[in-house]
Structure formats: C-alpha cells, structure tokens
Sequence to fold (786 residues):
Amino acid sequence: MKKEWIVNKDSKLKNKPLLERLLFSRGVKTQVEIKEFLNPLELKLTHPNVFCDMQNAVDRISKAVDNQENILIYGDFDADGVTSTSLLLRTFRHLGAKVDYFIPDRDLEGHGLNSKALVKLLATKKPKLIITVDCAVSDVEQVQFLKSFKIDVIITDHHEAPEILPEALAIINPKAQNALNATLSAKEIKYLTSLAGVGVAFKLAQAILEHYKKLDFVYDLLPYVTVGTIADIVPLIGENRYFVTKGLELISNGKHYGLKRLLEVSGNWNDTGITADRIAFGVAPRINASGRLDTVENALKVLTSDNKQEIEISIIALDNFNKVRQKLCEDTFLEAQEMFKTQGNSDNAIILFNPKWHVGIVGIVASKFVEKYYKPAFLMTFSEETKQIRCSSRSIEGVDVYDVLSANAELFEGFGGHSMAGGFAFDSQKISFEEVKTALNKTINEIVGDKKLLPTLHVDMELEPGEISGNLIADIERLQPFGAENPNPIFVLNNLTVLQKKLMGADRNHLKLTVGDTQNNTYDCIWWQKGDVSLNQGDKLDIAFYPQTNTYNGNTSIQLILEDVHSESLVEEQVFEQVQNPSQIKYYDHRKKTNIHANVEDYVRNSDLKISVFAEDKAVINALKPYNALSERIFNRQTLGKCDALMFFDYPPSEKVFTEIISKASPKFLHFMNYDVKKIDEKELLKTFSGMLRYSFKNQQGVFNLEKSSVFLAMDENIITFMIQTFEEAGLLQILDKSEKDYKIELFDVSDITKTLHTKKYKEFKTLLEESQEYKTALFEGEISV
Fold:
C-alpha cells in the first residue's frame, strides 16, 4: 500500500546543522532539551518516593524480608513481564528474602491475576505478600479475594488504569489515579508514564535497595530494564533513554552472561557495542516465543540462573521456540489473509476468527495485517481451557484500541491494553463472534468517520546529492538508542535512476538496488523482505531510507536501508484489485434487457473466453435450463473457479459473497443480467428451513452444513446462522456443537414453527433478510461505474 511521505520542511531550519535539524524534527528544540537528549546518562532520575504508595510498599516488603515471610512475585508471560519478574527475583534473593514467583500460562490463565491459579498458589506457595509486575491494575475482584485470606497485595503495573482501582496495600502505577506526587512537573510525569512494567518494578527495587543501603546492586538490574523497555516498545524518552543507554553499556561490557550468550547464539553480538535493535531482534522475540508457545521457565533460567550449563541448554530451547513461532506466524498469516480476501475489504477494521489459531501468535499476525493493510486488526481464537474466544488486537495512529475496548466493555469478561495494542476475552455461549465484530466495527466507524485510513511515513528531512557521508552516520549515532518516539531517522533522496537490480537471500526475498543521482553518485540500497518489484534499469524513483555502515570482507561502506519507494514504474500490490479498482474489469450492463437468453447463448457458445454463469436461485437455474451453453456453465459460490468472464444471472445475497465470488473467479469481464428481485416470504422460508433441519437430523447425524445450506437457499451464511439460533431460542432444537462450517444439532418437534416468530433472534433474522434484499436491489438498480 502506497504511503504518503510527511516531510519536515520548516524553513527556519534550512541553514541549521544537520544534527540540530534532526533533533528539531522529533520535538527536541531548546538547548536544554538538546543537551539532555544527547547526554542521557547525565539525566537525574526521579526518586522512587514520587510514587505516593512507595513508602507503604517498602515498609511492608522490608517487614516480609526481615521476618522471612513468603513473598510471591506474580508476573506476566511477555518479555516485559518476564524481565520484571527476574528483576524483583534477583533483588529479593540479594536481600536474603524467602521469595518465589509465578507466571501464568498464556493458554490456561491469560493476563493478570487468575482466580483458579491464585487458589492453587495459596495452597502450595502459602504467600503472605504478593507483588504483581506488569499486571493487575484492573483486577479488583481478584485482589479482594486475596484480601479475604489476609494476603497483602502490592501492584506494580504500567497499563492504563480503570476508574475503580483494586484495594491493594500499594499501587505503583504512574497511570493510576493519584499515584504520583502532585508537585511533579509535566515533563517528569510524561517520563514516568512512559515507563514499561520493568521500569516501574525497577523503581520499587531501587526504593527497597535504598532502604537496605545496597543501592550498588541496581547496576545488576539495569540489563533487565533495558530488555523489557525495548521489548515493550514504550517511548525511549527521559528515564527510559537513561535505562536503555546504561543497560546496553553494561550488557556490552559482559555484565550479564545469559544475555551475552543469547545475543551470540542469535547472531546479534557485536564486540564494538550492542544497540537497541540487536536486543529487539535477538533477545525479545526469543523470550516472547517461550511465553507464546510454552512456559517461560527457559527464559527465566537464561535471565536469573548462575549455572552456565543450564543457561546454554535454555538458550537452545529459546532458539527452537523462536523458529517454531516464526513458522506458525507465517502459516497463520497466509491462512488469515485468505479468509480476509474472501470476506472483503470494505470495513475500517480487520476482524477475523478461527478457533484453531494459536493464542500465542495471533497478536503478531495482527501486527502483520496492520503493516500490510493499514487498518486496526483484531484476530481471535478459541481457548479450550477457558472456553472463551480470546482476541489480540493492534491498531494505527488515530484509533485508540483501549478506547475501542472500553466502549464495548460490557461484551467482555476481561480486557486491557493501551492505545496501539490490546486484548480481550468473551464467552461465546453468551455472545457471538458476529455480535462482537459488529460492535467493534461500529465503534471504529464512529472514530474514523469520513476519514480515509491511509498509511503515512514520517520523514525527518530531504537530502541533497552528496550529503550522504560518514559525517551523516556520526550525527545519527548521537541519537542512539533508537526506539518508540525516537525512531531511526528517515531521509528522502529524489530524482534517482535504477542502475542495477538484484535479489538476495536463500529465498530471494530481499531486494538490492544500485541507484544513481544527478551528480553521478551511486548508492547501494537494501529493501528487506520485499522480493522482486516492477523496477528495472533506467527507471526513475524517489527513496525513503535510513543509512548504515556495512562491513564486508574488511571493507566498510554506506548502504541505504529502504523504507519505501515512490516511482511511476512501481506497480503497487493491489488488495482485491478486481473489487477495489473497477477499471481493472470491464463491465457490461444488460440489466434492463429482457428476452435475450438465446442471443447470450450464441455469444457464449462462440466465444474463445472461459465464461462462467453465477446462479444459486432455483427459479433462475430453471429458467436457464433450455439454454445448454448457459446451463452447463452454471456455478455457485462453492463450485466457482477462475474464469475470463463472469455473468450474473442471479445476484449475490451480500457484499461479502460478492467479494468472495470476484476473488475466486478473478474475471476480466463482468456481465450484469436482468434479474427479478423478489420479496422473500420469511415464514415460507422458515418452513423450508425446518425441512432442511429434519433432513440433517435424520440423515446427516444432526450435522447441518452452513455453506451447503446457504448455497441451497441462495442466502448469506449469517442469515442461516440466525435461523438456527431462532429455532434454538424457540425451543425447537438444541445446538450441541458448532464449528466454522457446521452445527451439530438435536432436533425436537418442529411442527409448530410459529414459536419462532416471537423470539428476539427472529427480529434480527428478519432484519438481516431485509438487508440482503436491499443489497440485491442496489446491485440491480444502482450505478455501475467502469
């Protein structure tokens, strides 16, 4: 999808040094701000006591440490949660405390405090004090449950906080109401609210270590803060900038054996220094993979163990998990993309459900959808353990996921997240996926309004020929570390010419372009994961990129890593090209022509094109029977394949079905024929449907196939689903099981179908039926544009 480049062109910066222009483009403008930004290790950190509940937390923890009470750290299974758990675990062990930890299983217990897990923990671990990390600010009921057993709870978290907070002994969360000292400046508050969960946990550890006069130990903890902060993609500003800079320095100097070995094994160790990118690509995915596919025990061993052999074995396990995760993500994305193409691209959000998808990777796949289609993405799967449909979502600028979920909170049994990512779960026995999908789409439509969701690329500045040099690289390096709100600078070079194109990598999935400018300078450009594109030698192009040094066989050069390319020669990948770009298909409008079947049959018989006829309506099929060349080419949505031309003698019941048909057929020509849009008698339809139910119950072991029945009735599957639910609500059948394609039913006496007319589902079914009729009418009467 083509991106709009938003380039900073402030005329006041024209004659300023490049570094100053770069800083200005990301909001660093005054001399004081510039000095602080370029010297993050000189930043003075806020004292932990700026958290109003911090002293209460320290008093209770020191009591537990001194009296050897059982302390339990309750964490989370992502990299932020795992590093937070490791950080406090190391801290309490250093102080000689009796400490244990628990990190919930993603599949079994999900995010946050889980009531069933807590019951087991109280029986087995017998904690007197529970400290949460990276979770629990919304867990009001669970904290109340622990209080009833006289268990003290200290919450450390960084997620958005609800209005009603848990009645914990202390809540250390900068986003919670009244959590911070009222005398803090706006800048200090911004820095604190940008902390990851591990940053908040560090503040607690810092306060405890200060209490015991062991503050030197914080340097053993900073590598954890670095990894968790980078992995959680929080803004790299203020204190986070200090934490990451100092932590990278410590890791580079071999402060943490497990992290050093993990970086080496993943091919991300560099003797000249470790960057945030190397943590982001080498460490974070491997920690996250363990939590997504298995338990986090191996990750915790790498982070907290002193046994080198144990660390080595765990690193191998993490690497294997990461490979499995990559394959799972690839397969799931391809499967989800096919589903998306079938359903159509008309909504402002991508909302998909497959009960077989792995709950641990749907969030990553949602991110891929956002990247490719620039729409908020919600991917859902079914958890057999919790009997819930669970969702991970990712969003775009301007659509706050947390606000979307909050607006629909009554649908969920739990939800959480922040502006760009979130998750929720709901009971599919109480509410359907379609109802949740409709509600989410409605909220997002209200947020988006008439705006078009178009991807943008923020560019720091346009460069002139000859400005790319070692000095540019040196200036860029001063902006390190890079991350959220301080990304790698993006530049633009215009009016270039392709000199050479080459595919790279074992799968030939990376693109290398050699380009030249008007002053005969040449540049090597790499476009990762792009594969081949429609650019050839001599083509003109503009490029958006960031430069980096590349050392190969002892030679060091500058290469440009491409983020995007604009060129008239670049044929952009189209999403549902045939539907979104009507000019790609030629339309023929025969809708007002009657008695032309014989002429059409002659045309079809003598044509060299592969022509298909779409018809599902029995009356239409019967009307075409006398015309052999037409009737032998009849296909429905199940049997249709690719063709050159597609004739609609019958009209699809919904936009979803229409999009599916176009996607499957990929025609070059469309013919819209005359069609009589008849009003359907819903009572007669229900009578027919009851006969279909009887047949399935008696002859198909109660298995009712949605796709076959929708084709038989020429209806949308949603209507079929609501008819089944209508019969169930009327007490005429029971749904024993359901999948994406089938319902397993037990049928009762259906002789009196008038019972269905008084159900809530009947009204919804009738509304859907009317909408389907309106869609067919619109296809018949509306304007067809070429």
Observations:
- The chain has five domains: 48-217, 344-448, 462-566, 577-673, 682-781.
- The longest strand covers residues 491-504.
- Residues 572-583 have pLDDT under 50 and may be disordered.
- The first helix runs from residue 18 to 25.
